Amino acid sequence: MLKWALIFLVISLIAGFFGFSGISAATATIARVLFGIALVIFLIFLILALLAGQAIL
Predict the structure, then answer these.
(1) What total of structural domains would you count in the chain?
(2) CA dihedral 11, 13, 15, 18 (to 10 degrees)
(3) Rounded to two decimals, what is the model's pTM?
(4) Please, where are the H alpha helices in 1-57?
(5) What gap in Å lies between CA 22 and CA 29, rounded to an integer?
(6) Which domain holds residue 29?
(7) Residue 18 DSSP class
């Protein structure tokens, strides 16, 4: 998912450089949403790993 966020970020930067502000804003929003989802999933797995570690001890 982070790979797709990075791809959309690069597309956004290239589109912004060439003056396509609408496409740039849309792809930047998609990149931001994908990064947010990846961050939430990471935090959920981190909490689950910590809880599983405590259950073993």
Answers:
(1) 1
(2) -140
(3) 0.79
(4) 2-17, 21-56
(5) 11
(6) 2-56
(7) T
